[in-house]
Specification:
By secondary structure, the chain is mostly helical. It has helices spanning 5-19, 26-33, 37-44, 47-59, 62-71, 75-90, 100-103, 113-139, 149-168, 173-184.
Length: 190
């Protein structure tokens, strides 16, 4: 049976996003993707590889994200862009609420620990690049010298994950944007 691999992958991503990695069955996936079980295994390997490919689709071009963080006028601008972009993603009309990275692996057995580590690696990658951008602002005097770059990047990532939870709970986009604005008021000032 022939099928559009990209369309099938997008449907798998949405299914994992809605139901999580562990609770999504092969039957759920094949029904959503409109393909047979042998086609799923033939095209994607197994459920874990399909999930990781779905996560890569969701995360997009991580190098482009890193470049955008580095090129932002300031670390505060980078943080604002990340958080406001997350709100838009988490409240999309054509996607499930919240964040695939947060919701798909929120719980899990030890057997899925490598899946959780892979997802955590994406968050760590973004946090690391944001931390580097914050450190540049500290070095150039934009931020106070006592600013803890790691903690500040961690704060942004924590707010981002909290926004995901609130979006899954049904909080409106405007309310989430107000939370971002309030959280960024904690940004250190010179």
């Amino acid at each position: 049976m022939s099928f559009d691999r990209d369309t099938a992958l997008e449907r798998a991503m949405l299914t994992f996003w809605r139901h999580g990695y562990e609770t999504t069955s092969i039957t759920d996936l094949t029904a959503a993707m409109g393909i047979t079980t042998p086609s799923l295994y033939g095209a994607f390997g197994d459920k874990k590889r399909l999930f990781l490919e779905s996560v890569a689709l969701y995360a997009g071009d991580l190098e482009a994200t890193a470049q955008a963080i580095a090129a932002a006028p300031s670390a505060l601008d980078a943080a604002r862009t990340l958080l406001m972009g997350a709100v838009i993603t988490y409240t999309g009309e054509a996607t499930p609420p919240g964040c695939l990275l947060a919701s798909a692996t929120a719980s899990g057995s030890p057997a899925s620990s490598d899946v959780r580590q892979s997802v955590a690696g994406i968050r760590s990658f973004v946090a690391s690049h944001l931390e580097q951008r914050i450190a540049r602002d500290i070095a150039s005097g934009v931020l106070p010298p006592h600013t803890d770059a790691s903690a500040l990047a961690g704060l942004v990532m924590t707010v981002m994950q909290g926004l995901s939870v609130m979006a899954r709970d049904g909080m409106a986009r405007a309310s989430l944007q107000a939370i971002v604005a309030t959280a960024l008021q904690a940004w250190p000032r010179r």
